[in-house]
Amino acid sequence: MNLRHLEHLLAVADTGSFSRAAARLFITQSALSRSIQGLELELGGPVLDRLGKRNTLTPLGQEVVARARPILRDLEALRDSARLLQQGDLGRISVGLGSGPAALLTVPLLTTVARDHPGLRVSVTHGPAELLVMQLRNRQCDALVVDLRRVVPAPDLQIEALAEQRADFIVRSGHPLAGAARVTLAQVLAYPVACTPLSDEVIRLMVDQFGLQAHPSEMVRLECDDVSALLATVEQSDAVFLGVRAAARAGLDAGRLVALPMHPDMRAGARYAVITLAGRTTAPAMASFRQILQTHLHDDAL
C-alpha cells in the first residue's frame, strides 16, 4: 500500500476539503483526487462520500484513517530517528579503552555526550588490549582505542594509528627529584616506579636506551591497569609514574605533578590506535567520538 495515499486521505479527513488538503500537501486538487481514487481502487471500495463541497468518511474510510494515523506517526518518528542517527545525535555506541586511553578519554567522552548529545547512549569498557579485541570481535564493542603495540594485526581488524604520545617519568611537586636539573634512571630507581603493563616493543626501547635496569622485572614495583590510581599514588608518595604525559596533564597544569628532566631524554612513547572491525558499517555517532580523540590526543603528541 502506498503510504502517500494514506497521508493524502488523512489530509482530506482533517480539513474536510479537497482544496484545503491540496494546499496543505502542496499538490494540485486533481493530483489529490487521483491519489484518493488509487487508494479506493486498492482497497476495493470508497473511502469518501463526496456531497457537493462536503467530503465525509465512509465506514471503510473511518477504519482506514483510524489505522493509518499511528502508522504515519511511527513513520514520521522513524524519519526523525534516521535523521538524528545520521547526525550522530541518536543511537548507541560502545567503546573499549585501554589503560592509557581510559585515563585520557573517559571523562571527556562522557561529558561531551551528556552535554551535547542527549539522544545518544554510550557505553565505555576498560581493560587490557587483548581482552578488548576479543570483545570487539564478539561485537560487544563498536570501536577500541588501545596501545597499538599490544595488538596483533589481522585481516578482520581495521587499525588506524593515532599520533604517538610522549612518555615521561612524573613525580609529585614535593618529590626529592622534582627540583633536579637532570635525572638519570639510576636516581629514579631509588624510588618505586609505577606504570601500566608495558608492551614488548616499549620494553625493548627502554632497555636499548637505559640498559637492562629498565626492564620491568628490574624497574617496576607498582603495576596497575588503572592510570588514575597510579597517579593518585604518585601524588601521595615518592613513587614515580612512568607513562604518557597527557594522562597526567591535569596534575601537571595545576603544579601538583612534575615531569622529570631525564638524561638521556626519553625516546619511548605510546602509540595509540582506533580499532574497528573491517567491513562493518560504522555508527554515525562515531564521528563525534573521533572529534573527541582529535581534541584530547594531540596536545602531547610527539
From TrEMBL:
SUPFAM superfamilies, A to Z: Periplasmic binding protein-like II, Winged helix' DNA-binding domain
Gene3D superfamilies for the chain: 3.40.190.290, Winged helix-like DNA-binding domain superfamily/Winged helix DNA-binding domain
Domain of life: Bacteria
InterPro entries in UniProt: LysR_HTH_N, LysR_subst-bd, WH-like_DNA-bd_sf, WH_DNA-bd_sf
GO molecular function: DNA-binding transcription factor activity; transcription cis-regulatory region binding
Domain HTH lysR-type span(s) in chain numbering: 1-58
Keywords, comma-separated and alphabetical: DNA-binding, Transcription, Transcription regulation
PANTHER family membership: HTH-TYPE TRANSCRIPTIONAL ACTIVATOR BAUR, HTH-TYPE TRANSCRIPTIONAL REGULATOR
Family the UniProt entry places it in: Belongs to the LysR transcriptional regulatory family.
Protein name: DNA-binding transcriptional regulator, LysR family
The species this protein was found in: Acidovorax soli
